[in-house]
Amino acid sequence: MIAFRNSIILILFLFLTNGTEIHAESGIWREILLENFELSNFDANNLRTKLEKGTKLPEISLSSNFTAPIPGSKQALVLRIPKEANFPFSLYFPKPIEVNAFIKEISIPIYSSRSSGNLTLIIETQDAEVKQLNLTSLNYRGWNTITVSISKNFDQNDRVFLQKSSIRILGFFYLPYENNDPNQEVLIAIDDITAIVRDKYRPLRNKEILLED
What we know:
The structure is a single chain. The protein has one helix at 2-26, and strands spanning 30-35, 47-48, 59-63, 76-81, 89-99, 102-113, 117-124, 130-137, 141-149, 167-176, 186-190, 193-198, 202-203, 210-211. It is mainly β. The strands form three sheets. Strands 1, 3, 4, 6, 9, 11 and 12 form a seven-stranded antiparallel sheet that branches. It is globular. This is Flagellar assembly protein FlaA. It comes from Leptospira jelokensis. Keywords: Cell projection, Cilium, Flagellum.
């Protein structure tokens, strides 16, 4: 009877201990705001194209009347692309968004007027390589929150302990499809950009062992 009781106590102890560790694991992540389009200024200087000089560029503005249906949103970035300006272009932030933490994923509410195009995120890695990460096809109408994994696409490990290397988010790249309606006007809007992050290094019980996702 005593042995049976001790076995039950041991099982309960192990169960509760494991439950605590799972809770601690989920608690290491936090959500941060990267850009809310309320403090930055955007104009035609933030748009770039590789086409010939004089190519018509999209109209860019900040709107408080056209925002994503999310709590706390006060302003969104709006791109109106007339049919004569529906060419590939890049949109760069006035200042790159620099993130020193380990990024799990980035979420961006994006409005589309159901155009035949694609939107990618331009990122500079810790090795100063500029890469594009696919966000979404724009063949839908309305607001859609796009979540893209960063931890599975880019190496974020510091080369040296506590080196504080960072990833820089530079902007977006728009690419219309070849079969895009030449008479179609395209409307794109981007709202609060958030990320799920944690500290770069997380010590385990053995302080000499470091865990990275």
